[in-house]
Amino acid sequence: xxxxxxxxxxxxxxxxxxxxxxxxxxxxxxxxxxxxxxxxxxxxxxxxxxxxxxxxxxxxxxxxxxxxxxxxxxxxxxxxxxxxxxxxxxxxxxxxxxxxxxxxxxxxxxxxxxxxxxxxxxxxxxxxxxxxxxxxxxxxxxxxxxxxxxxxxxxxxxxxxxxxxxxxxxxxxxxxxxxxxxxxxxxxxxxxxxxxxxxxxxxxxxxxxxxxxxxxxxxxxxxxxxxxxxxxxxxxxxxxxxxxxxxxxxxxxxxxxxxxxxxxxxxxxxxxxxxxxxxxxxxxxxxxxxxxxxxxxxxxxxxxxxxxxxxxxxxxxxxxxxxxxxxxxxxxxxxxxxxxxxxxxxx
Length: 347
Description:
12 helices; alpha/beta
C-alpha cells in the first residue's frame, strides 16, 4: 500500500519542488527510493550532501561561482528535507541547521555576494539575507517574507529575478518560520516583525530606502499587505496566492499539514489561523498592490484576492492565471519575472 503522506506531498507540492532548483531527474530518484514518510528527511538530506560535495570539489578547483550555486542547491535540498517533517524534532532541527550552514558557505561565493543578517526583534533576532545588484550604486530594496510552511531560502529564485532588474533584495524568516519557530510562532499582527525589518533597512546608507517594496508568497502575501497597511515607508506591495483571511480553512487541510503547522503557529493553530485577516486593514493600503493568483488553486482561490481588491485604497492589479496552482509554481517562469518587472517599474 502506498504511503498516504508521500502521496499527499507528491500530489500537492511536486511543482513547488521542481520550481525551486530541484532537478527532475534527482526528484525521480528520490521518489523511486522512498517508500515511507519516515525516511523523507534522511533521503533528501542524502542528496543535499551530494550537492555539498559538488560545491566543495568546485571550490577546491577554484570555481567559486559554481561552488556557491551548489551550496545554494544543497541548502534547498535541506529545506525540502525538513518540509512538513516537524514530528521528528531532532531531524527537523538538524536539517534546518545544515541548511543554514550551506547558506553561510554560499554567501561570499555568489555573484553578487550575499550578506547574512541577524535582525534584532523582541530580545532575539530574525535571520535574513541581503543581496545588492553590482551594477547599481544605491539600489531600491525589496523585502520578502515566505509562506506559513516555508523559509526564506525558498524565495531564492524569486529574488534572483528581482535582483536582475537592478533591485536589492532582503528575504527573512519571521516568527514561525524555520528555526525561528522554536522561539516564536506565526502571529496575526505580522506588521510588528515586518516593521522591525524595515527599521533595520532604514539604518543602511547603501540602499535607496525611499524606494522600498515588500512582498510575500502564500501567508507571506497577507503579512506583506498588513505591513504595507501599517508602515508608510513601504512604497509598493505584492502578494502571491494569499488570503483576505484563511479563517475556516483548517478542516480542509490535509492531516500532514495540520500536524506540521502546529510547529509554525503553535498548538492553538486553528485559532491563530482564524484570527489572520485583512478586515479593517485592507482599507489602509494606499500604495500600489500587485496580486498574483492561480485559478487552479483551491487552497487560496481568486475570490480572496477580489475581497482584498474591493477594500484597498491604492491602485491594485489582480492577475489570475487559470492554469496556476498555489503560488503559480507550475508557471513560475511567467509569474516570477512578472513580479520582478512590476517592482522595477513601480517602486
